[in-house]
Automatic annotation (TrEMBL):
It comes from Photobacterium sanctipauli. It comes from the Bacteria. Residues 8-269 form the Extradiol ring-cleavage dioxygenase class III enzyme subunit B domain. Keywords: Dioxygenase, Oxidoreductase. It holds the Pfam family LigB. The keyword Oxidoreductase applies. NCBIfam families: PRK13364.1 (NF009901), PRK13365.1 (NF009902), PRK13366.1 (NF009903). GO terms for molecular function: ferrous iron binding; oxidoreductase activity, acting on single donors with incorporation of molecular oxygen, incorporation of two atoms of oxygen. Gene3D superfamilies: LigB-like. The keyword ATP-binding does not apply. This is Protocatechuate 3,4-dioxygenase. Transmembrane segments: none annotated.
């Protein structure tokens, strides 16, 4: 049977992709941020997962404000990146796992989740930056990826509890899959940040660290929050925490935090990185 071996949280700021593209990882501005990832690289190399399920949000490449599904899941053989206007070269295609994707989609619909199933899907920095951070040098050709895209751009957005429940349902679907696969789940985005308006540049370190604690010890404390709460506490883009909650919902075993790091400021965003082992 398929098994979820762990979860990873990571920022997906587009400027990270540009730093990678220009080889700036060890410059003073970026070094502390990138130095948080080698322990994750070592764990991925040791565990060798077959599939990565990635909770992320699209920023207008595939879904613009005229058509914005609440939940969209990829069921494609490959996922392609495109130029988003940052002057970053698109990364190589990312391989999908169509069979597992369809299994998850069928299970979600059976559990009354209304999802958009995408047999073609372009992926932006919300997904590509985490791929580059997890597998430096774009060395991810051995991995299969299932994108889970959540609306965090246009109101109304799904509640933290709904996203946690989505993660639970995806975790149950993976566990019911009859192939021996090792699956890692990524929750991307955030933490606190506001990119525009009167509070542009707003970061709430205290709230970010609270979220990093509660995501492990008491996720119900976060699922009781509303989207409005997240905007007030973490800025207009703070609701990206719901991707973390999607990841957390998939983890059902005893959890062990193998690595944790918090760093500000990177592109006016609180960047939280965690490696969570999901024990049986």
């Amino acid at each position: 049977m398929a098994k979820i071996i762990g979860g990873i949280t990571t920022s997906h700021i587009p400027l990270i992709g540009k730093a990678i593209d220009q080889g700036l990882q060890q410059t003073p501005y970026w070094k502390t941020f990138f130095d948080a990832y080698p322990p994750i690289h070592d764990w991925l190399e040791e565990e060798k997962p077959d599939v990565a399920i990635i909770f992320y949000n699209d920023h207008g490449l595939e879904f613009f404000i005229d058509k914005k599904p609440t939940f969209a899941i990829g069921a494609a053989a490959q996922y392609h990146n495109a130029d988003e206007g940052w002057g970053i070269k698109p990364i190589p295609p990312i391989n999908g796992d169509q069979e597992l994707s369809w299994h998850i989609c069928n299970e979600l619909v059976e559990k009354e989740f209304d999802i958009t199933i995408c047999q073609e899907m372009r992926v932006d920095h919300g997904l590509t930056v985490p791929m580059q951070l997890m597998w430096p040098g774009n060395q991810y050709e051995h991995m299969k990826v299932i994108p889970v895209c959540i609306n965090v751009e246009q109101h109304p957005m799904p509640s933290p509890k709904r996203c946690f429940d989505l993660g639970k349902a995806i975790g149950e679907a993976v566990e019911s899959y009859d192939k021996d696969l090792k699956v890692v789940v990524l929750g991307t985005g955030g933490l606190s940040h506001q990119l525009d308006g009167e509070r542009a540049g707003f970061i709430n370190k205290e709230f970010d660290l609270y979220c990093m604690d509660k995501i492990i010890s008491e996720p119900e404390a976060l699922t009781s929050l509303t989207i409005r709460d997240l905007v007030e506490e973490a800025g207009a883009q703070g609701p990206e925490l719901i991707m973390w909650l999607g990841m957390r919902g998939t983890l059902r075993g005893e959890l062990n935090v193998l690595h944790s790091n918090y760093h500000i400021p990177i592109s006016n965003t609180g960047a939280g990185t965690m490696l969570i082992e999901n024990k049986e």
